[in-house]
Amino acid sequence: MPREELNWDIPEDEKGYHSSGHACGGDLLDLIRRINPRILIPIHTEHPEYFVQNLKDTGIRVRVPTEGQPITFP
After folding, report:
1. CA torsion angle for 20, 26, 28, 31 (degrees, to 10)?
2. Is the separation of the CB atoms in 23 and 31 below 8 Å?
3. Closest residue by Cα to residue 59 from 74, 41, 37
4. Are 42 and 64 in contact (CB under 8 A)?
């Protein structure tokens, strides 16, 4: 169906294209388990505790950073 026939009412500030390259949580966990790092530091996430909970029995240490605090490695 041609776009003109759909009669879409899209606000001007929302017109254009958008795509996201973010993976879902399950896919991230799968990748992390395959890589099997000794330490995982989740950044650019709103839910770092997701990784703490879902990786607790894997032997992967999850270090959640605190804003303004340095991260030290053993």
Report:
1. -130
2. yes
3. 37
4. yes
